[in-house]
Structures are given as C-alpha cells and as structure tokens.
Write a structure and sequence with these properties.
The complex is a heterodimer of chains A (442) and B (271). Chain A is built from 18 helices and eleven strands. With 442 residues, chain A is of the alpha/beta class.
Chain lengths: 442, 271
C-alpha cells in the first residue's frame, strides 16, 4: 500500500510538470522586459489602462535590475530567441543594435504621436541611418546639486554657470569632516555606467576624448591627466570616505541624509532629492548646470531609456501599439492625473516642459530641459572624434573598456596608484583591447 | 567521560557565537525589510517598523506565482536528479569497474566550468527545443546541475553499506530493483534524504540559470528578488522584504527537516 502511494506521488508530480510546461500562450500576449527604475514601475502599474483600451492585447512583465536586464536581453536578441516583444534599452544600445539589424525601425508613426515633439538630442541619439529605432520613455542629463543652507552659512553663492575651479573652491569651504559634511560627492564605483559616465563627461569638459580619428586611445594625454588629477584631488580632499564604493544610489543616500555639500550627477536625482519621503534635505536643495572646464560646448551627458521592438518579436503590431502608448503625450497626461505632475517621465517631450503645471510642480524642470538640449551627444570634442555618445563612446567594446579603465581610475582614489601610473595602465589596456577588436576598421 | 564545566561553557559560547555570526546577515535583512527606504541606508538601529515595503513588493509582483514556480522546479529538479543518481551511485558503489574512479572525477569536473561559459550554447539549445521560459527546462537544467553532487553524496553513503547485506538479499532471490528498493534505500534513507534536501536548497537558491532562461512564465523566486534592486533610486528595504519572503518557505522547511539533515550528514550505516 505504502509502495503504491509513493509511486503515485512520483507519477502525479510528473503529470503536474508536463501540464505546467504546456501552458498555452494567447495570441496577443506580449512580453515586456524593463528595468525597475521608478518611472517604469509607474508604467507597469498604469498599463492596466492600456489593457482596458486594447482588450485583445495582454501584457506580461519581466522586471529586472539594469545590468541583469542588459545581459538577459542581449543574450536573447543576439540569439534571435524572440522571448521579448518590447525591450527597455539605453541610447547606448539602440544605434549598435540597429546596425546589427536586431531592432524594428519605428517608422510610419501616426500623426497624433507627434514625433517632432520628442526632444531633438534624444531623438537624434536613437536615430540610425535616418530612422528611429526606439522611442524614448524617459531621458536624463546631469546637473549640479548643492545644499543652499550650507552655501548660505559659508556666505557663498552658486553662479548660474559654475566652472570646475569655482566648484573646487566651494567644496573646500563647506567641507566639515568633523560633522561628516563633505563638500563634494561624486561617483567612484568602477563601471562604464558608474564612475566612467561622470569621468567621460569631465574629460570632455577639459578638452579630452576616448579615441582620436585613427581610433588610437588618447588616455595618456594632458587633458585626461588634468581631469583625473582634479577628480582624484577633489574627492580625496573634500569627498566622503570610501568614495570608490559610491555609485548613483550611494551618493543619493549620502546627499539625502545631509552628508554632501555638492553632488554632480544624473538629473533624475532632482525628483528623488525633492521627495520628502526619501530625502531629509528636500527643502534645502539647489540646482545648477554641470560645471564647465577649459573646453566649452562639447558633449556633456545624455542617457535615455527607450522602448524598442526586437526584430525577432512575433507580435510586432501589438508591441508597437504598446510602445507608442507608453511614450505618448496621453501617457504623460495620464501619469500627471494619477500621480501628479512631478512624477511624469522627464526629458522626452517639449510639450511636457511647456506645461505650466509641470513647471510649478518640478522647479528643476528648466535645468533638466536645458541640460538635455546642450548635451550634444553627436557633437564634437575639442579634437575631432570618430565615435558618438556623450558620457560614453557608442561602440560595442566600450562596456568592457569603460569598466576596466574605471577600475584603474578608482585605484587613484584608494591610493593604489598615482594618476600617471593609472593613465599609463589604462592607455595600454585600452590599446590592447582595441587592437584585439580589430581597430582601426576603416 | 564527562566534559569539565569549563569545556562545556566554551563549547556553548563558541557554538552560539558561530551561529549568531552566520545568522547576522539574515537577521539584518529581516530588520531592514521593516524599515523605510530612508532608514534602510542609515546604519542606526533605531527606527519605527513599517510594513510599507511588503505592501509595495506584493503590489508590484505576483509573489504566489513565483513561489509556485520555485516549488515546482526545485522539487522537480531534485526528484529527477535522484531518479538518475540512485541507480548510478548504486552501480558505482557495488559493481565498480576499472573506470569508476575516473567517471566520478569526470562528473565532478563538469562543476568546474563557470555556468556563464556555456550560457549561449544552452540558450540556443533551449531556443530550438522550445524550452525557454518553461518549468520543464528549468527542471532539466537543475537536475543536470546537481547530478554530480547528488551522485557523489549518494556514492559515499552507499560505500558505508557492507556488501554482505546486499549479498544476503541476493541469496534470498532479490533482483536488482528489490535490492535497491527494499535493502539499500531503507538502510541509507537518512543519507538519501539529506542529499535530496541539499539538492532542493541548491535548486531553490539557484539564480544564474533561472534569471537567464526564464522571462515571465516560469520565473522562480530568485528572479522575483532580482526585480527589486535598482540602479536609480533607493531599494534596500524593498529588496530585503522580497528576499525575506523568498527565503521564508525554504527556511521553515529546513527548520522542520534539520534533524534529517544532521542525521544524514553524520550518517554511517552500521557504525
């Protein structure tokens, strides 16, 4: 008896497994892969309304952390497995993937979509060979955050267009290590999207760049030396301890709990620092543009999260319906109605910034719009350059290079190496990677 | 021989210290799950407990469907691995050949390759076989992943059983199946049970394959946890709440079965 029961359990289990594997897929079910940043979480919540408007389309969500998502969707799209119908991808991936033929072009958009309303630098970054390959969900640039109370106390005034030298002076004056107040917080955690995003933009501001027109790395140039010396000095003198473990979130926590005098980072932090639930300095935050260095007018910082449709998707029409809905003016109005104007996804549409409601709800809106408009991702550095991108170089090899150089640069903060040693190491490592990747290609 | 009082006290203190040290991260995680996001990044212990993170986590994802997937794929993977490992270990323990030792080592060597090294081939195989985002696919990969360890553990347990007992069974006319089912398994039950438990825990905690081979349908609790960390915005409290919910079932299960586990791991058939 006992024996029969046990065999019964095994067969029952096998039956359960085989049934579960054969779960049916409805015809118009689309799978959406997205990151879990605040704006996407809102999108997921509001998507019930989309399903009401389109009763024949059902949505399935895969929400993952950025790096996990990147690995996941890259595997899928490179093997053309077609697990996803909508992917959330950065403006780094869009042109590279479009070139590979992995993405559906976003042409023939309806007039009501108002594609011209999308901010031009954002739209440009998603355009390959004259066609859009992704629609922007939200976009960000970078700006300077500072504590108005600390500036008042020290008798300082933030200029409308600060320079890096002025910023260093301010940082020295407001640093008060005895009370754990650090004049300058910056990203120090190694990674192409972490410290190297800021460092790339700083190097551009000092007239440097990643590669010259022959694709030779230019990390051993005076511009890089000036930028990295500044970065390393200011963080050692006025930065928080253990800066090499601080990325965006760690600095957000530090600034939000009152430990930073200034912080230069993504504009998306504006809304978060302004939120009294997350930040104890919500009423003491001031905003200023990114500081400038010796070279003005070069690329600064532009990142956008976009919705793209992989060429391997089997539900392209349904996917397109969702993508145009989630990036439309109507969607922005819907978020405003449900969650208030301060929560709308920023940085994509001129009409958002024309809205008086948005301007009054988000006092940093003007800075964000301005920062995006001058971000200049397709523009030139002081010397001509063969690649595009603002705080990154838009080539597939950059993820690896950026992360490797990021580790070397972090070594100058922890005292493992001097600036000269670090730049020399980074230069030769990058030269090697580029040679292995077959550059120069033309 | 009676231990002296000092010895007993030292043993107790050391035992508790090690236990607390091991438990600290889990305890901290549970504490953090009751904090607000702002409190979660402070190192202070003073905070007002809130269930907000749990509410947020439950509102954003369907916990039960992830948990069900976890149960199905962990149990399925373990059962499948045992189905193959029991006969394999039996044959290697009681009917060894000249190549048995080498085979055992070769099986273990498959664990030396980092999984990411075979991600693309496996992904392509799964794509062709239509196994992506299916529970059957995860059950297969989990069973294969744990098979070497399961075989090795069962092999060592079986080695403890004197061949004479099985021989006596054979004299009485037992065939191979009866030999394993009526003699070997009952004798080594604690060992088999602890092997199964270990395999179950390994499956439950496996994150690499489950993250890469599933999307929405078959995703287990490990992907549920992964959906709550974020590069832009604070997430420690939500992540802790999600992790607490993910480890809770296996923790409770482990607690109930700890006697089996300890007995199995210190097991000897006739010692």
């Amino acid at each position: 008896m006992a024996r029969r029961n046990r065999t019964g359990v095994i067969w029952g289990l096998a039956a359960v497994l085989s049934v579960s594997a054969g779960a049916a897929q409805a015809d118009s079910t689309i799978t959406i892969a997205t990151v879990n940043n605040g704006d996407m979480v809102v999108m997921q919540k509001l998507s019930a309304q989309f399903e009401q408007q389109h009763p024949d389309i059902h949505l399935r969500w895969v929400v993952l952390e950025e790096n996990v998502l990147r690995q996941r969707v890259t595997t899928d799209i490179a093997t053309k497995a077609g697990q996803f119908d909508v992917m959330t991808i950065g403006n780094y991936e869009v042109p590279i993937w479009a070139k590979q033929g992995w993405l559906e072009p976003m042409d023939n958009l309806p007039a009501s979509y108002a594609v011209d309303d999308l901010l031009k630098p954002v739209r440009d970054a998603l355009t390959y060979n004259g066609k859009l390959y992704g629609l922007p969900f939200y976009a960000e640039s970078a700006m300077t955050y500072y504590r108005t109370d600390l500036f008042d106390k020290a008798g300082l005034k933030m200029p409308d267009a600060p320079t890096y030298e002025q910023i260093r002076g301010f940082a020295d004056k407001i640093t008060d290590k005895a009370h754990q107040v650090y004049g300058m917080c910056l990203r120090g955690k190694p990674g192409w999207g972490e410290n190297m995003a800021y460092v790339t933009s700083l190097v551009d501001a000092e007239g440097g760049q990643w590669f010259d027109m022959q694709w030779k790395p230019t990390i051993d140039t005076p511009a890089w030396k000036k930028a990295i010396t500044y970065y390393s000095d200011i963080l050692k003198t006025d930065g928080p301890p253990g800066a090499t473990s601080n990325g965006f979130n760690e600095n957000l926590a530090l600034f939000g709990s009152g430990h930073c005098g200034m912080w230069i980072d993504a504009t998306v932090a504006g809304g978060l620092l302004y939120d009294k639930k997350q930040s104890s300095v919500a009423d003491k935050v001031g905003f200023a543009p990114m500081p400038t260095g010796s070279y003005k007018g070069g690329p600064t910082w532009l990142w956008s999260w976009n919705l793209g449709i992989p060429a391997s998707s089997k539900q392209k029409d349904a996917a397109r319906a969702f993508v145009t809905w989630a990036t439309s003016k109507e969607y922005i109005r819907l978020v405003a109605k449900e969650n208030g104007w301060v929560s709308v996804p920023p940085g994509t549409r001129q009409s958002t910034y024309d809205s008086p409601d948005y301007k009054s709800a988000a006092p940093f809106a003007g800075f964000v719009l301005n920062a995006i408009n001058v971000a200049n991702p397709k523009g030139a550095t002081e010397q001509p350059r063969p690649y595009e991108g603002a705080q990154f170089a838009a080539i597939p090899e950059f993820q690896g290079i950026g992360t490797q150089v990021g580790q070397t640069i972090a070594g100058t903060l922890s005292g493992q190496s001097t600036v000269d040693q670090a730049l020399k190491t980074a230069q030769s490592a990058t030269e090697r990677t580029m040679r292995q990747a077959g550059y120069p290609k033309k | 021989m009676q231990d002296s009082l000092l010895q007993r006290v030292t043993t107790a203190i050391t035992g508790w210290a090690v236990a607390l040290l091991l438990f600290f991260p889990i305890g901290w995680m549970v504490l953090t799950s009751f904090k607000t996001e702002g409190d979660a990044v402070k190192s202070s212990l003073a905070f007002t407990p809130t269930l907000a993170s749990y509410g947020e986590v439950l509102a954003r994802a369907d916990y039960l469907s992830f948990a069900l997937n976890s149960v199905v794929v962990s149990v399925g993977g373990t059962v499948l691995a045992l189905l193959f490992a029991i006969p394999a270990a039996y044959s290697m323990a009681f009917h060894p050949t000249a190549r048995t030792r080498g085979t055992l080592l070769w099986m273990l060597s498959t664990k030396m390759l980092p999984p990411v090294g075979v991600l693309v081939p496996i992904y392509l195989l799964f794509r062709t076989a239509g196994l992506l985002d299916s529970r059957i696919g995860l059950v297969l990969i989990y069973a294969l992943m744990n098979l070497p360890i399961v075989v090795w553990m069962l092999f060592t347990f079986y080695k403890e059983v004197p061949n004479d007992i099985l021989e006596a069974g054979r004299m009485d006319g037992a065939r191979v199946f009866s030999e394993v089912w009526h003699l070997l398994l009952p004798l080594t039950m604690p060992g088999v049970a602890s092997t199964g438990l270990l395999s179950l825990i390994l499956c439950w905690n496996e994150a690499f394959w489950s993250l890469n081979l599933t999307s929405a349908g078959a995703a287990p609790l490990t992907t549920f946890i992964a959906s709550f960390s974020s590069p832009e915005g604070l997430f420690f409290a939500k992540l802790s709440a999600a992790s607490t919910m993910a480890v809770a079932p296996i923790l409770v299960f482990g607690w109930f079965s700890q006697r089996q586990l300890v007995r199995g791991l210190t097991f000897g058939a006739v010692k």
